[in-house]
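re: ur question from earlier - yeah i can do the single chain one, its not a big deal. heres the input i used so u can compare w yours
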Amino acid sequence: MQTDLFLQSIYITLLIAHIGILLMLWMGRTAQRNKEWLASAIGVSMIVLLIQLLPADTEYVGRVTRDYAIWLALIGTVVIVGGLIIHDVARPGMLEQVQRSWLIIGGVWFVAFAVTALLFDPVFVGWSGWTDTISPVPAAIGTVGVIAYAIYSLGLTFYFFYVAPMPEVANRAAFWVVTMGLLLAGAGLIASGTVLFMVAGNILLWLAIAIAVHGIRNYRVPDVRDTIIALVQTATVVAIGWALIFATLYFMSTTSVVDDLFNTSAGAGILVLALTALVIATLIVPARYIIKLLFDRIMMRSRPNLASATAQYSQRVARAATLEEVVNATTETLNRVMGVKRSALILVNNTVRVQDSIELVVLEMGATLSNPSGVGYLHEKSPIYHTLAVRSVPLGQYDIDYGPAYQKVSPQEKAFFRDLKMSAYVPVSADNRLIGLLASGPKVNDTSYYREDVELLSVIGQQVGTALRSARLIDDLQHLNDSMRVLNKRLEGAKVELEKLDTIKTDFITIASHELRTPLAQIRGYTDILDSLNKSNALKEGQADQLVNNLRKSTERMEELISAMLDVSQIDVNSMDLRFIRTSAETISKMALEPLRDPADERNIEIIRHSAKDLPNIEADLQRMVQALRNIVLNAIKFTPDGGKIEISAELEKAEADGKPDSVVFKIKDSGVGIDKKDIPYIFNKFYRAFDTQLHSSGIYKFMGAGPGLGLTIAKGIIEGHGGSIWAESERHDMNEPPGTTFYVRIPLEPPSGTRRVSPFEEERAVKS
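and the output i got, formated as tokens:
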């Protein structure tokens, strides 16, 4: 009777303890989904206790005994806690699948065990009563289920431990391994049916639930590996101490030493025992040191020496003058002293394109501002910014990913820090202003960061601030000097260009004045002759027609010059009016060459035009394209010696990219004096002449008889207005052995979008004309 009362008091105490952790859970700040899982686990665990308070011979429905009901409740507890663990540590991509399989297996186990209540009599499954059970099937189902579920659950947890992206996540998985182990051990002891084992099992069950509550309420849990290593070290030291004491006592008990001690005076015997104890204690001290050193070597857990590491870094960074040297010194020191796989220095740039944000530029060893490892943005209202910049406190990647204070951080900021694959970030400040971050990656031994590690990072971060500010000032000065050198080179180039433009302007004024003065002088001269002959009545038959014809030619020459200048002005402001109709390369080349054949024949220049009838039609401004092609051929006539040759051809060119139209390429090749390669980029500029203006001739078709230098400029503007391109190729300029020049004109079959098209009536009229 007293035993039953004692057991009931234990169970009632455990029930009260369950209620306590349930209230603590519900009043905490745990996520709602985890509260529901834990509340269910605590509820089922309480049902296990309540069932055990009932008499052992209680039957619920027919043949369902108390022990059988305990088994059902334990299965439910294991399934719920296992689902909770999976929900906590599984990655989002595999969470749903793993949790579904877990619940399906648990459901099958629960149903299979429940069905046995209907098929077997009596249903008693306690370990202590197996020999009294008629059928071992229920016990076998329960036992096999526990073993299979234990292997499955522990295997999953170990897998999560193995694939964990960072040590803190791996430690959390190890924490759940311990929790699940306690839960399964408690469930097995409760299901034994033995009173003493059942009491121990209930205590283990409550302990597992309490640990689960602690793990859910706190995203940081005790370091399981450190705890295990400390326990193993302590156990090893105890074992060595025990072995030394046992060996000493055994040696003394098997020899006459004990008799000699007790036969001597009491004081001498006690002294010998004291000296023996002192020797044993002295041996334990180096043994403990050696064991600790051995474990640290095996686990690669050597802690950095703060003073030595900072002294090394101070000496190294003191010699760093540039930003790259500071980055290399910092990262090399961290990689060596901290034993990390990689590290980086993140610079803060306050002049960014994103409002109310700072730009983060990641620099690793060997990187400079011109080739950073990554660039991200951090909003000034972000919790991460508040921790690093306002509070100036180190921050871990685990905190960013799992800390409750950082759950509202934007996905872009989380992705930026996650992609860096670092473990800890320490603010680097100068003049109470954040100028950078010291980023340290995962350790080689995959352990978490200890307090000494964070202290070392903070001290190095303080030293980096001064060195970084100096290095950035030096880099800014170097950048300024480089910029000044570039600007000076540009100014020198601009000066050369201005001098060249001034020469072109002077040449144009000379040429234009000459070009305009010649027809004006002719007009004035012919007008004076006509007036004089008219007053003296000396005009003969046919003289008036000849004088008027000469006047017409002079005015037409002036009109051509003025039209060319107007065309150039329209090209400068992109206002040339192009009216597109469907035409052909054959028509354009034929119309362009017709007026030029007679002047070419006078200089014995052969013009060869290849047929282009097989080419597809193009849409173009016929009048303007004829003008452009004629200007190019006219330019070829001027710079081809008498007796030379000019060849015009056209071919189809397929588009390089899908969706773009094919093109027709005109080729105008002459046997002229050629163009120097240094002059080719400028021949399409206004008023540019590649040759001495003293060679200028007012004759339109004479050899080297260049005009004002607008023909190629107008041709280029017309061709580019059609969406095409023009370029020239020539080996050299040589008056003695002319190498010739080839001009290429590419015109797409379809005009660019937004061009003006003529109406059908206008198109028909243009074709007829």
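Residues 1 and 679 are 117 Å apart (CA to CA). not sure if urs matches, ping me
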